[in-house]
Amino acid sequence: MTSKSLAISLAVPTGSLESYISAANSIPMLTAEEESSLAERVKEDGDLNSAQRMIMSHLRFVVHIARGYRGYGLPQGDLIQEGNIGLMKAVKRFDPDKKVRLVSFAVHWIKAEIHEYILRNWRIVKIATTKAQRKLFFNLRRKKKRLGWFSDEEVHTVARELGVTTKDVLQMEARLTYQDNAFDGYDEEDNDNAPVIPANYLESAEPTPEQALVTSSTKKNQSQALHSALSTLDDRSRDIVSQRWLSDDKQTLQELAGKYEISAERVRQLENNAMKKLRSSMVA
Predict the structure, then answer these.
(1) What is the pLDDT of residues 128-149, one digit of tens each?
(2) Does the model's pTM come out above 0.90?
(3) Within a 13 Å sphere around the CA of 186, how many CA atoms are in the beta-carbon half?
(4) From residue 5, how far is each of 10, 28, 89 by CA, in Å?
(5) Residue 42: helix, strand or coil by DSSP?
(6) Residue 42 · residue 50 · CB < 8 Å
(7) How far apart are CA 25 and CA 21, in angstroms?
(8) What distance lies between CA 191 and its chain's CA centroid?
């Protein structure tokens, strides 16, 4: 193993992907004997240096697998990085006694990590949650050789080959076709041909935080002013106003007249006088 090989980092440089790939491809592959010996050290002693040599010699393999997922529109460097995580998991679990080369054993772990990354990041809303949906997701993309929707014959063919129902195929095809739209649009959407963004037509009926604060402050001030104005009334006038306007179970003029043993007309006069006084106090 050369010093150049040992110097290469597992982390993919964000600005020099080609340099990383070139360096990964320059690391020599291990012979079967070397790989078996290193794997024994990892298994028996947990030797990190041996594990690193096994990982480094297989970085080119991760790059090769990651290139097969370029059609998902995700950064190639991120795909490689996720594949590297799968490779490290494979090295940790690799058993040399099985007489299988690491390259064959690791492919499952590398693809599994890349698949998880794609499913987490390809759409804002998850499109595949069950094992069957995930299998259909990746297989359907490979079988869709052209743009446009599947014909009925193609739907039945895919369903038969993948062992799923035609309904499953149609649902997944629809999920693959839908595109995410930013709520506020994007900077490049400043021309007349830009799609209508949701922010332009999805208007909330709820008040803005500023409006809610003003409304709350206004109600609080009005409540305090009313309470202060009521305190200026005599007990009878205050009770009449409260029973006529502020109570959930409002009383009639006749009921209040009976309570205070006066005429209903007198109650009305007291009410009007009290209301005028309240308005004057609250305006002041």
Answers:
(1) 556 666 666 666 666 555 445 5
(2) no
(3) 8
(4) 11, 8, 20
(5) helix
(6) yes
(7) 6
(8) 28
